[in-house]
Each structure stands twice: as structure tokens, then as C-alpha cells.
Write a structure and sequence with these properties.
Layout: H1 7-10, E1 14-15, H2 18-29, E2 34-38, H3 42-45, H4 48-52, E3 59-61, H5 66-78, E4 82-85, H6 89-95, H7 97-105, E5 111-113, H8 134-139, E6 145-147, H9 152-164, E7 169-171, E8 177-178, E9 194-197, E10 202-206, H10 210-223, E11 228-232, E12 235-237, H11 241-251, E13 254-261, H12 266-277, E14 282-287, H13 297-303, H14 308-321
Parallel strand pairs: 2-3, 2-4, 4-5, 5-7, 6-7, 10-11, 10-13, 13-14
Antiparallel strand pairs: 1-8, 6-12, 9-11
Helix pairs in contact: 2-9, 5-7, 10-14
């Protein structure tokens, strides 16, 4: 098992986006040929840290032109660079989808789509900016890998993995400061899921900001005598079917929690896996076919029923469906 953050460290909140520029700067200092291509948001995405570290010639600001940003990144990759794109997720995947599909993925180029400000954690920016379909869009593309880190340390690990993995990789990052889950310097693998808490009565598969909510829910359920296993499906594509199947075979049911639409994301991937390999009752904790809403992040978690309390209720519901209580 990977090492989790201590209670003291967990209380120190950091945004996953904060790992972006800092990790690119570290990689550049290590001699890795990374470049960042941004769409006029270098401060918000933190790619500006690459220039601040003395690598001004590796940061390309394309202005408010996300489609051009992806094409510039594609060209830089053909010149031997490992090209990362920045922007908000709603623009960096939605507005530039055609270029990601036909230029990057079709040709299997070494471009990393790494937007920030995904999901409802964008908060007050509201539904127009709260991208809840990005995992679905990226997961459906051939040659694309999809990573959804839970915290700052996992985001840093995801960015390093993306740099080390030839071809397209999607790394989803958020705006809000979130509690630390992993110990600093954690090393993760593409195609692996991680059991963060062992249990026998239900499986919770989650990723991103929902990992902390799942761990809080597990504590609340334990107080009621319900033992749940918590799995971080950090790698949505490829998905670690072996770890998830082994857990559900033990517990008999699953809850999937994600800060994403109920359609096409981690929940869909897990349901597809179980339908094919080990049918079992599943409940999904996700945003139900609607756009986001302006509000504070913690308020929105409860409003959209994707907080720890909602996971607790989903576990009880799926156990009842499975005839386990």
C-alpha cells in the first residue's frame, strides 16, 4: 500500500493545480525536455512557475486560443519536446476537442492535456466553467490515458508519469485547496488503483476530491459497524480491473464516487467492468445530468450530493440492494 499523509499533513490543504507549474519546473531542472503551452491563464494554471524558475523559453502563451494551443503543443512535440497544455478544463478539453482528437490522439503525439479548474471545485465561477464532462470526453479517445489525482502529491506524481509516458495523457486538476491524502513524494503508476483502507462490507471506488470524502465516509460507517474498502482509481484509463474486481468479489457491492457527471466517467468505467466480469450492485455518487452552480466548494459538494454524507447513504443503499443488511 502507498503511504498516506499523517493527520497533521492532511490538515494542510493544497490545490492540485498548484503542483502543475512547480512539477514542470522540477522536471526542467532535471533535464527533462518539457514545455508548457497555455491559453492566457499562466497565473491561474500555475504554468508561469516554469518561466519563474528560469525557463522562459519553455513557456508559450497562445492567448485566448485553446484550439491553437493544442496545435502548437503538437508541433512542439514533433520537435522532440514533451508538451503540456494548460487552461481551464472547460476550454482545454471542450473548446479544443477536435484538435485533441484529430491532431494529438489520431497521430498518437507526445502531448499532455493537463487543464486545471475542473469540476464543481471551480466554485463561484458557476456552471459555465464547472466542467463535468471532461473525463468522458478524454476517456473515449483512442490512445489517451486519463489520470484524476486526489491531492497535491498525487497531482505531482501524475504529471511526472505523464512526462515519462509516450503519447497522449490527460491529467485532471482542480482550483480548490483540498486536504492532503498522500505523503509527499508518493509514486503512482498508470493502470494501477490503490487500496487506501481495507474493508469487508462494501467497496468504495473513488478518485480526485472524492477520495477524502470517501475516507471520511468510511470513518462514519465504521462507527456504525460497517467496514468499507476504499480504492483510489487514480487511473481511470487504463482502469485497474484486477484490484476492483478482487475487492467487489470480497464485499459483494460497490459505490463509485466522482466529481463528474454520472455519465461516461469513472462510474461508467467501473459499471462496464463489473457487468462484463463480476455483476454486482453498484450505486453512483456523481452529478446527475445537470450543469454546475455558483457557490463555495464545500456547499456544492452537499448541494450536488457528492459529499461524505451522500457516500454513507449510498453504501447503505447498495448493501440493502445486495441483501447484505
Amino acid at each position: 500500500m502507498v503511504k498516506l499523509a499523517t493527520a497533521e499533513t492532511a490538515a494542510q490543504k493544497k490545490a492540485t493545480r498548484a503542483a502543475f507549474g512547480a512539477t514542470l519546473a522540477q522536471l526542467a531542472q532535471e533535464g527533462v525536455p518539457v514545455v508548457a503551452v497555455d491559453a492566457d491563464l499562466t497565473g491561474s494554471t500555475t504554468t508561469k512557475k516554469l518561466a519563474d524558475a528560469g525557463f522562459e523559453d519553455r513557456l508559450f502563451n497562445c492567448g485566448i486560443a485553446e484550439q491553437n494551443m493544442v496545435d502548437v503543443a503538437a508541433g512542439l512535440s514533433l520537435a522532440g519536446n514533451i508538451a503540456f497544455t494548460g487552461s481551464f478544463a472547460v476550454f482545454g478539453t471542450g473548446r479544443a476537442y477536435d484538435q485533441i482528437r484529430n491532431t494529438v490522439c489520431y497521430s498518437n503525439l507526445n502531448v499532455k492535456i493537463a487543464p486545471t479548474h475542473a469540476g464543481i471545485s471551480v466554485g463561484p465561477d458557476g456552471g459555465s466553467h464547472q466542467m463535468l464532462e471532461d473525463v468522458s470526453l478524454m476517456r473515449g479517445l483512442p490512445n489517451m490515458r486519463v489520470l484524476v489525482p486526489a491531492d497535491y502529491a498525487a497531482a505531482a506524481a501524475a504529471l511526472r508519469l505523464a512526462a515519462a509516458t509516450p503519447g497522449p495523457v490527460y491529467v485532471r486538476m482542480g482550483r480548490a485547496a483540498v486536504p492532503c491524502v498522500y505523503e509527499d513524494g508518493v509514486q503512482l503508476e498508470i493502470g494501477r488503483a490503490y487500496v487506501l483502507r481495507e474493508g469487508t462490507d462494501a467497496t468504495i471506488v473513488a478518485n480526485g476530491v472524492e477520495i477524502r470524502e470517501a475516507l471520511v465516509a468510511a470513518e462514519a460507517l465504521a462507527a456504525e459497524g460497517i467496514s468499507v474498502e476504499v480504492i483510489d482509481a487514480f487511473s481511470v484509463k487504463p482502469l485497474d480491473g484486477e484490484t476492483i474486481l478482487a475487492s467487489v468479489a470480497k464485499t459483494g457491492c460497490a459505490v463509485v464516487a466522482e466529481e463528474h457527471s454520472v455519465y461516461g466517467g469513472l462510474g461508467s468505467a467501473v459499471c462496464e467492468l463489473l457487468a462484463a466480469e463480476h455483476p454486482a450492485p453498484v450505486e453512483q455518487v456523481a452529478v446527475r445530468d445537470r450543469f454546475g452552480k455558483s457557490g463555495e466548494f464545500d456547499e456544492l459538494l452537499a448541494y450536488f450530493s457528492i459529499d461524505a454524507a451522500s457516500i454513507v447513504e449510498a453504501v447503505k443503499k447498495v448493501r440493502a440492494r445486495a441483501g447484505l443488511c
